[in-house]
């Protein structure tokens, strides 16, 4: 059952301080229950923007996206109840304890009080958080904070989980623990969207991936499929080659754009492209 | 960059402009004073003349005097019961005396009563001689009866004191010099105050002036810092993103934050108040021990009912400030940037908080609808025990406060729905980047930011321009020159420069389109038909927001100058030129920019407010804003500025003709007698024409609305062009 469907998603920004730019272009993919779908790309590839759109925090410029068959634009409230969103900055309130923070979000998601306590107890045991349940956010380590964030995202037991570069800033132990949590969640039948720029995480966790650069998907599929297509088992090399090829073709297009513009023909020409005529 | 370079340049002139506008509302309050007794002093002493002298007339509120001669029943009663002569045995004291004074003030319908007891400066007699008996008579105290619980009574006593002082220092001294009498021999009569307001009430009056000011500053400060933490702080911590992905709607999030901030604001204000009550109670008890002649005698411990009314004031004010602080703080990308926004917010709120403290400002239908000011004056009326007045204006103050709260909250919600506000990165723009962006990526129409900047720059330029030209000698030559310089150099100039520099098409960014003849005709007629209503509206505004005597006097001077020059030159310089320049700026450049993203309401209201503020006199500002709303609507419906130019020219021309009609010999044709009549102040509209013209205007208005509705009136959206691609083909072809 496909819990996430993304069709031709596009997001562009018109900022008065800089050129209008396209953050996500023609993004399409789908993910089903019990699957980890990875969005892989370098910094600025548009991963966070795409996930923010799916989390209903941003609105798409065009295209459609459905979570549990709810439209992210017109049925945003239903979508929010169906997802758990973990961002890369371990967002927690510094004055709240781990317990208070999770309880606060449980109430925000309207989890019945009787069920909330039971759910919290089980989550705190499952995520090994009982040791620091009364520790305020300001005194927690990054790993602890990330665990609290995950507990907060799981409190209403959503079918879809969105992890936006969750291992950023975590040490090896915490990263391993987080990976295990994600694998457990997948085994429980959750559909997981996971963004990262680290190949090893993809190899370890993802069933399928989409490799992105500058808002566009360069290639997608399961890891064996990608390996066959690009004739290499070294995924890091594969990733590097795809990104470099994309950058080179973009650079050529930009040079052509400048030439056309010099002739008075309108075209897309970035201001800062080096090597003009 | 905006907060460091642009804000300081714009902020202070704009605050100055606002202060100047508000300072014009110094209401000339009419005071009623009864003079009882010796008529010679009143008639001959110069007390009456001193009020009329030019220097006093400009500063003092006008006083209405009633005189009760020594043999009048009121004078006899006062003389008998209040013991104006020390020998009088029937005089009453204590509570009974207070009741009598209250009754006397009520009966004589006066704010204060001045009782004269033999103070002579008779025209043909020497005022005093070395004779000790006469000197003693000269020093019999003047008795002033008042109820200083009331604002009017306090003003009346202040006026009386000032007049008596003036009388002594100017009139009596001149008189003694003329008679060649040594001035040392004359001692001014002391003033004996009989004020029925208890000491606690008088002390409360002092506190009621100071405390709202302190409380509001604390309420604003108390709201601002939590607002920064709840907006910029959440952005920094990343918790905002988490919150936005939860089932809570943006509106719910804003309301939740608003409640929290309001609680903090109220708590800050209340804690400060409690601390002040305790401290003042302790300090004044210590300070008053054994000393009656103390500099702190005007103050006293803060009473409980005063605290109660302050609490009533602080809750709506905190709510309003919190909503405002929340909206402003949501613009900040970091807590550090948020700190920069506090000072502008305080400076904007400052004139509104200071206005009620100015002497002569009381609760009226005009002041009650000014945000913050109205609420402060209302709470002061409650504190002073003027419950009748307070209850009368309670609905209007409550409506304005609630409306402001809702508007500020709506603004905050919109900020929370705006992705660029919520997720914009820290300012990375460099000056070079800005220049390149402005020049290479000019759009067809100005952006909303550019048009607002244009409007604000013009306001700042006008502020300094008017200040520089204020010192010039007032005659037609200088007046016409300064008007031309202001209109062309300070208004049209900046708008044209910005249109050329920032946009690709000057005609489009100034909305220069060819109008339909029918629309032109309709707008021209509408200007004529609506003018009588405008005159009535302007009269209402000047009644509600009376201008200070200085402003009125300078306006009269200008009218007199205009009356002495040919009408065509007045119309050319003061009607046609300003109309065209203002239309190009406000319905042209500013309007086109504010229309970005189909913001029709924003364009109409924004251009009207900026247009209103460009008028230096408060009364004109209010009227011009109202007219600006209509002109904005017309500019929108007719898709250009040609029709509004015509409307504006006709409107200004009629106004100038009528304003200068008193000093011209304008003959009204007999067939116009039913519409126009001659009065003392010039030509005026008749009641019949007022009614007929309004009906015609409404009909025309409806016809215009229906007809123009068929046209495509929105320009293509500049934002969507930006999104479509960095350089759209039609924009490149149209490069100027």
Provide structural commentary.
The complex is a heterodimer of chains A (277) and B (736). Chain A has 277 residues and is of the alpha/beta class. Chain A has 2 domains: 2-222, Rossmann fold (3-Layer(aba) Sandwich), CATH 3.40.50.300; 232-277. Chain A contains 9 helices and 10 strands. Chain A has helices spanning 47-54, 76-82, 98-108, 113-126, 142-154, 172-187, 199-205, 223-230, 235-262, and strands spanning 2-13, 21-32, 36-40, 62-67, 70-71, 83-86, 160-164, 191-196, 208-213, 216-222. A 6-stranded mixed sheet of chain A has the order 6-7-8-3-9-10, with helices on both faces. In chain A, helix 3 crosses helix 4. The longest helix of chain A is centred in the C-terminal third of the chain and has 28 residues, at 235-262. The termini of chain A are far apart. Chain B is mostly helical and 736 residues long. Helices cover 67% and strands 5% of the residues of chain B. Chain B folds into 3 domains: 31-197, no CATH class; 201-289 and 297-423, no CATH class; 433-733, no CATH class. Chain B has helices spanning 2-23, 39-44, 47-52, 54-57, 73-81, 94-107, 132-138, 151-178, 199-237, 239-244, 250-288, 304-331, 335-340, 342-354, 373-383, 387-417, 419-423, 431-440, 448-470, 476-502, 506-509, 517-544, 549-563, 567-594, 600-613, 618-637, 642-659, 687-708, 718-724, 729-733, and strands spanning 31-37, 63-68, 112-116, 142-146, 191-195, 676-679, 682-685. In chain B, helix 20 runs parallel beside helix 24 and helix 22 (517-544) packs across helix 27. In chain B, strand 4 (142-146), helix 8 and strand 5 form a beta-alpha-beta unit. In chain B, strands 2-1-3-4-5 form a 5-stranded mixed sheet, with helices on both faces. The chains are: A alpha/beta (277), B mainly alpha (736). Chain A binds chain B through residues 12-20, 52, 55-59, 61, 77, 80-81, 83, 85, 87-94, 105, 108-110, 149, 152, 261, 264, 266-269, 271, and chain B through 237-242, 244-249, 419-420, 423-424, 427-429, 433-434, 436-437, 440-441, 447, 449, 719, 722-723, 725-729, 732-733.
């Amino acid at each position: 059952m496909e819990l996430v469907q993304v069709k031709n998603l596009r997001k562009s920004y018109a900022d008065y301080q800089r050129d209008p730019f396209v953050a996500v272009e023609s993004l399409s993919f789908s993910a089903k229950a019990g699957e980890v779908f990875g969005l892989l790309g370098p910094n600025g590839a548009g991963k966070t923007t795409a996930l923010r759109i799916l989390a209903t925090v941003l609105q798409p410029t065009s295209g459609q996206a459905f979570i549990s068959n709810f439209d992210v634009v017109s049925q945003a409230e239903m979508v929010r109840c169906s997802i758990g969103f973990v961002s890369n900055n371990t967002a927690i309130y510094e004055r709240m304890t781990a317990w208070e923070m999770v309880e606060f979000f449980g109430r925000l998601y309207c989890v019945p009080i009787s069920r909330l306590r039971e759910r919290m107890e089980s989550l705190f045991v499952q995520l090994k958080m009982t040791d620091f349940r009364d520790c305020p956010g300001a005194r927690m380590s990054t790993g602890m904070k990330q665990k609290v964030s995950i507990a907060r995202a799981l409190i209403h037991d959503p079918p879809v989980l969105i992890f936006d570069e969750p291992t950023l800033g975590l040490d090896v132990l915490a990263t391993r623990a987080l990976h295990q949590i994600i694998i457990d969640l997948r085994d429980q039948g959750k559909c997981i969207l996971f963004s990262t720029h680290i190949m090893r995480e993809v190899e370890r966790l993802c069933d399928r991936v989409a490799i992105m650069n500058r808002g566009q998907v360069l290639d997608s599929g399961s890891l064996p499929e990608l390996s066959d297509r690009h004739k290499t088992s070294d995924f890091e090399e594969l990733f590097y080659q795809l990104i470099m090829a994309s950058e080179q073709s973009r650079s050529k297009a930009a040079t052509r754009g400048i030439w056309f513009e010099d002739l008075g023909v309108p075209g897309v020409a970035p201001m800062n492209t080096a090597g003009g005529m | 960059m905006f907060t460091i370079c642009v804000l300081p340049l714009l902020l202070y002139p704009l605050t100055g402009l606002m202060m100047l506008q508000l300072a014009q509302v110094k209401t000339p309050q009419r005071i009623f004073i009864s003079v009882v007794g010796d008529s010679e002093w009143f008639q001959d002493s110069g007390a009456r003349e001193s009020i009329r002298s030019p220097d006093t007339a400009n500063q003092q509120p006008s006083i209405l005097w009633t005189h009760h001669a020594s043999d009048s029943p009121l004078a006899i009663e006062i003389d008998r019961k209040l013991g104006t002569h020390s020998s009088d045995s029937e005089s009453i004291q204590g509570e009974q005396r207070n009741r009598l004074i209250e009754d006397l003030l009520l009966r004589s319908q006066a704010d204060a009563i001045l009782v004269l007891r033999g103070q002579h400066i008779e025209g043909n007699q020497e005022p005093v001689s070395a004779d000790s008996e006469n000197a003693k008579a000269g020093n019999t105290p003047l008795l002033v009866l008042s109820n200083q619980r009331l604002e009017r009574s306090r003003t009346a006593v202040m006026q009386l004191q000032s007049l008596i002082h003036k009388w002594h220092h100017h009139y009596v001294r001149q008189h003694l010099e003329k008679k060649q009498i040594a001035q040392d021999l004359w001692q001014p009569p002391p003033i004996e105050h009989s004020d029925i307001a208890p000491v606690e009430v008088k002390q409360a009056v002092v506190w009621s002036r100071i405390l709202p000011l302190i409380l509001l500053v604390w309420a604003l400060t108390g709201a601002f810092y939590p607002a920064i933490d709840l907006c910029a702080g959440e952005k920094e911590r990343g918790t905002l993103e988490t919150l936005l992905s939860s089932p809570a709607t943006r509106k719910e999030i804003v309301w939740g934050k608003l409640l929290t901030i309001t609680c903090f604001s109220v708590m800050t204000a209340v804690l400060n108040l409690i601390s002040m009550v305790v401290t003042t109670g302790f300090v004044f008890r210590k300070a008053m021990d054994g000393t009656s002649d103390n500099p702190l005698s005007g103050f006293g411990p803060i009473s409980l009912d005063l605290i109660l009314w302050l609490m009533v004031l602080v809750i709506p004010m905190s709510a309003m400030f919190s909503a405002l602080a929340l909206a402003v703080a949501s613009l900040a990308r970091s807590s550090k940037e948020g700190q920069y926004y506090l000072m502008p917010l305080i400076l904007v709120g400052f004139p509104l908080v200071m206005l009620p403290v100015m002497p002569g400002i009381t609760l009226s239908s005009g002041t009650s609808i000014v945000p913050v000011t109205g609420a402060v004056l209302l709470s002061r009326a409650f504190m002073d025990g003027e419950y009748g007045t307070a209850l009368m204006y309670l609905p209007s103050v409550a409506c304005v406060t609630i409306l402001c709260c809702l508007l500020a909250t709506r603004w905050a919600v919109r900020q929370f729905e705006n992705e660029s506000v919520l997720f914009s990165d820290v300012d990375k723009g460099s000056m070079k980047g800005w220049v390149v962006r402005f020049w290479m990526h000019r759009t067809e129409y100005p952006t909303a930011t550019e048009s607002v900047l244009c409007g604000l720059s013009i306001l700042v330029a006008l502020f300094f321009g008017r200040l520089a030209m204020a010192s010039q000698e007032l005659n037609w030559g200088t007046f016409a020159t300064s008007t031309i310089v202001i209109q062309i150099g300070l208004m049209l100039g900046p708008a044209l420069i910005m249109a050329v520099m920032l946009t690709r098409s000057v005609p489009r960014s100034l909305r220069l389109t060819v109008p339909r003849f029918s629309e032109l005709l309709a707008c021209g007629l509408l200007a004529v038909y609506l003018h009588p209503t405008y005159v009535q509206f302007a009269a209402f505004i000047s009644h509600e927001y009376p201008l200070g005597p200085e402003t009125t006097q300078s306006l009269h001077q200008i009218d007199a100058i205009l009356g002495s020059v040919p009408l065509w030159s007045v119309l050319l310089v003061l009607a046609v030129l300003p109309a065209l320049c203002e239309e190009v700026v406000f319905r042209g450049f500013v309007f086109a920019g504010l229309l970005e993203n189909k913001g029709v309401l924003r364009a109409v209201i924004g251009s009207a407010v900026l247009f209103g503020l460009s008028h230096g006199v408060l009364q004109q500002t209010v009227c011009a804003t109202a007219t600006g709303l209509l002109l904005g609507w017309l500019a929108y419906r007719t898709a250009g500025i040609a029709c509004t130019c015509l409307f504006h020219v006709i409107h200004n021309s009629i106004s100038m003709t009528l304003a200068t009609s008193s000093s011209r010999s304008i003959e009204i044709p007999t067939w116009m007698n039913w519409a126009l009549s001659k009065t003392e102040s010039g030509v005026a509209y008749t009641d019949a024409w007022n009614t007929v013209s309004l009906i015609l205007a409404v009909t025309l208005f409806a016809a215009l609305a229906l007809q123009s509705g068929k046209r495509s009136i929105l320009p293509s959206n500049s934002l969507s062009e930006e999104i479509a691609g960095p350089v759209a083909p039609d924009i490149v072809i149209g490069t100027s």
